[in-house]
Write a structure and sequence with these properties.
Shape: extended
Structural class: alpha+beta
Helix content: 25-40%
Mean pLDDT: 74
Radius of gyration: 23 Å
Oligomer: single chain
CATH class of the largest domain: Mainly Beta
Number of helices: 5
Length: 170
Protein backbone atom coordinates (compact mmCIF):
# COMPACT_ATOMS: atom_id res chain seq x y z
CA UNK A 1 0.00 0.00 0.00
CA UNK A 2 2.81 2.42 0.89
CA UNK A 3 4.50 1.85 -2.45
CA UNK A 4 1.30 2.77 -4.30
CA UNK A 5 1.04 6.09 -2.40
CA UNK A 6 4.69 7.03 -2.95
CA UNK A 7 4.22 8.35 -6.55
CA UNK A 8 1.27 10.47 -5.43
CA UNK A 9 3.25 11.86 -2.52
CA UNK A 10 6.23 12.70 -4.75
CA UNK A 11 3.93 14.29 -7.34
CA UNK A 12 2.21 16.42 -4.70
CA UNK A 13 5.57 17.63 -3.36
CA UNK A 14 6.69 18.46 -6.88
CA UNK A 15 3.44 20.28 -7.64
CA UNK A 16 3.45 22.30 -4.41
CA UNK A 17 7.05 23.38 -5.05
CA UNK A 18 6.08 24.41 -8.58
CA UNK A 19 3.82 27.25 -7.47
CA UNK A 20 5.50 28.00 -4.14
CA UNK A 21 7.78 30.41 -5.97
CA UNK A 22 5.21 31.55 -8.52
CA UNK A 23 5.10 35.26 -9.26
CA UNK A 24 1.89 37.27 -9.35
CA UNK A 25 0.81 40.90 -9.56
CA UNK A 26 -2.15 42.77 -8.11
CA UNK A 27 -4.68 43.68 -10.80
CA UNK A 28 -6.10 46.48 -8.62
CA UNK A 29 -5.28 48.28 -5.39
CA UNK A 30 -6.04 45.85 -2.56
CA UNK A 31 -5.08 44.95 0.98
CA UNK A 32 -2.65 42.42 2.37
CA UNK A 33 -4.60 40.72 5.17
CA UNK A 34 -3.31 39.01 8.32
CA UNK A 35 -5.46 35.93 7.63
CA UNK A 36 -7.70 34.70 4.82
CA UNK A 37 -10.81 36.65 5.78
CA UNK A 38 -12.37 39.93 4.63
CA UNK A 39 -12.66 41.15 8.24
CA UNK A 40 -9.03 40.30 9.10
CA UNK A 41 -6.61 43.04 10.13
CA UNK A 42 -4.92 44.76 7.18
CA UNK A 43 -1.15 44.23 7.21
CA UNK A 44 -0.47 46.70 4.39
CA UNK A 45 -2.18 48.32 1.42
CA UNK A 46 -1.00 47.05 -1.96
CA UNK A 47 -1.13 49.26 -5.05
CA UNK A 48 -2.23 48.02 -8.46
CA UNK A 49 0.66 46.22 -10.17
CA UNK A 50 2.46 45.26 -6.93
CA UNK A 51 4.81 42.31 -7.42
CA UNK A 52 4.09 39.31 -5.18
CA UNK A 53 5.45 35.82 -4.52
CA UNK A 54 2.76 33.13 -4.09
CA UNK A 55 3.28 30.98 -0.99
CA UNK A 56 -0.01 29.12 -0.57
CA UNK A 57 -3.57 28.94 -1.92
CA UNK A 58 -6.71 28.33 0.08
CA UNK A 59 -10.13 28.68 -1.55
CA UNK A 60 -10.63 32.26 -2.71
CA UNK A 61 -7.49 33.50 -0.94
CA UNK A 62 -3.76 33.33 -1.71
CA UNK A 63 -0.99 33.72 0.87
CA UNK A 64 1.73 35.89 -0.61
CA UNK A 65 4.93 37.70 0.22
CA UNK A 66 4.96 41.36 -0.77
CA UNK A 67 7.44 44.05 0.11
CA UNK A 68 9.04 41.79 2.74
CA UNK A 69 5.70 41.07 4.43
CA UNK A 70 3.52 37.99 4.31
CA UNK A 71 -0.25 37.93 4.29
CA UNK A 72 -3.37 36.98 2.38
CA UNK A 73 -4.89 38.54 -0.75
CA UNK A 74 -8.14 37.67 -2.50
CA UNK A 75 -7.30 35.53 -5.51
CA UNK A 76 -9.56 37.68 -7.71
CA UNK A 77 -7.24 40.65 -7.05
CA UNK A 78 -4.26 38.82 -8.58
CA UNK A 79 -3.02 38.23 -12.09
CA UNK A 80 -0.39 35.74 -13.08
CA UNK A 81 2.11 36.41 -15.87
CA UNK A 82 1.66 34.42 -19.06
CA UNK A 83 4.42 31.90 -19.43
CA UNK A 84 5.56 30.29 -22.65
CA UNK A 85 6.68 26.71 -22.87
CA UNK A 86 8.72 25.85 -25.91
CA UNK A 87 7.74 22.68 -27.71
CA UNK A 88 4.77 21.60 -25.59
CA UNK A 89 1.07 21.84 -26.15
CA UNK A 90 -0.13 20.81 -22.70
CA UNK A 91 2.47 21.81 -20.15
CA UNK A 92 3.99 18.36 -19.80
CA UNK A 93 4.18 16.44 -16.54
CA UNK A 94 3.84 19.48 -14.28
CA UNK A 95 0.63 20.63 -15.99
CA UNK A 96 -0.83 17.15 -15.69
CA UNK A 97 0.18 16.73 -12.06
CA UNK A 98 -1.10 20.11 -10.88
CA UNK A 99 -4.31 19.69 -12.83
CA UNK A 100 -4.84 16.18 -11.47
CA UNK A 101 -4.29 17.40 -7.92
CA UNK A 102 -6.89 20.13 -8.37
CA UNK A 103 -4.67 23.21 -8.34
CA UNK A 104 -6.62 24.68 -11.27
CA UNK A 105 -3.62 25.39 -13.48
CA UNK A 106 -3.36 24.20 -17.04
CA UNK A 107 -0.91 25.20 -19.73
CA UNK A 108 -2.30 25.34 -23.25
CA UNK A 109 -0.47 26.46 -26.36
CA UNK A 110 2.18 28.31 -24.37
CA UNK A 111 -0.17 30.30 -22.13
CA UNK A 112 -0.91 29.72 -18.48
CA UNK A 113 -4.59 29.65 -17.63
CA UNK A 114 -5.58 30.06 -13.99
CA UNK A 115 -8.93 29.01 -12.66
CA UNK A 116 -10.35 29.37 -9.19
CA UNK A 117 -12.97 27.19 -7.65
CA UNK A 118 -14.88 28.35 -4.65
CA UNK A 119 -17.13 25.85 -3.01
CA UNK A 120 -20.84 26.45 -3.15
CA UNK A 121 -23.83 24.44 -2.09
CA UNK A 122 -23.50 20.69 -1.67
CA UNK A 123 -26.16 18.26 -2.92
CA UNK A 124 -27.14 17.79 0.73
CA UNK A 125 -27.63 21.56 1.15
CA UNK A 126 -29.89 21.59 -1.90
CA UNK A 127 -31.95 18.65 -0.61
CA UNK A 128 -32.48 20.34 2.76
CA UNK A 129 -33.23 23.80 1.36
CA UNK A 130 -36.53 25.39 2.24
CA UNK A 131 -38.00 28.43 0.50
CA UNK A 132 -38.21 31.75 2.30
CA UNK A 133 -41.58 32.93 0.98
CA UNK A 134 -41.34 36.31 2.74
CA UNK A 135 -38.00 37.04 1.05
CA UNK A 136 -39.40 35.93 -2.31
CA UNK A 137 -42.40 38.25 -1.91
CA UNK A 138 -40.07 41.11 -0.98
CA UNK A 139 -37.95 40.46 -4.09
CA UNK A 140 -41.02 40.30 -6.31
CA UNK A 141 -42.14 43.70 -4.98
CA UNK A 142 -39.00 45.23 -6.54
CA UNK A 143 -39.81 43.84 -9.97
CA UNK A 144 -40.52 46.32 -12.75
CA UNK A 145 -41.77 45.71 -16.26
CA UNK A 146 -40.07 47.26 -19.28
CA UNK A 147 -42.58 50.13 -19.62
CA UNK A 148 -42.18 51.11 -15.94
CA UNK A 149 -38.39 51.02 -16.22
CA UNK A 150 -38.45 53.20 -19.34
CA UNK A 151 -40.82 55.67 -17.67
CA UNK A 152 -38.54 55.83 -14.60
CA UNK A 153 -35.49 56.48 -16.80
CA UNK A 154 -37.33 59.18 -18.78
CA UNK A 155 -38.59 60.94 -15.63
CA UNK A 156 -35.13 60.80 -14.08
CA UNK A 157 -33.62 62.16 -17.32
CA UNK A 158 -31.33 59.15 -17.56
CA UNK A 159 -29.48 58.75 -20.85
CA UNK A 160 -27.90 55.76 -22.53
CA UNK A 161 -24.11 55.95 -22.32
CA UNK A 162 -21.83 53.64 -24.25
CA UNK A 163 -18.43 52.97 -22.66
CA UNK A 164 -15.59 51.33 -24.57
CA UNK A 165 -13.53 49.08 -22.31
CA UNK A 166 -9.76 48.76 -22.75
CA UNK A 167 -8.67 45.46 -24.32
CA UNK A 168 -7.18 44.19 -21.05
CA UNK A 169 -10.54 44.44 -19.25
CA UNK A 170 -12.67 42.58 -21.80
Amino acid sequence: MRLRLLPLFIASLFASCAFAQEAAFTNRATELKERAAADARTVAPLPEGASLKVLERAGGWTRVEAEGRQGWVRVFHLRFPVTAQAGTETGGVLGSVTSALGFGRERTKGATVATTGIRGLSPEDLKNASPDTAALARLQSYRADKASAQRFAREGRLAVVSVDLPEARR
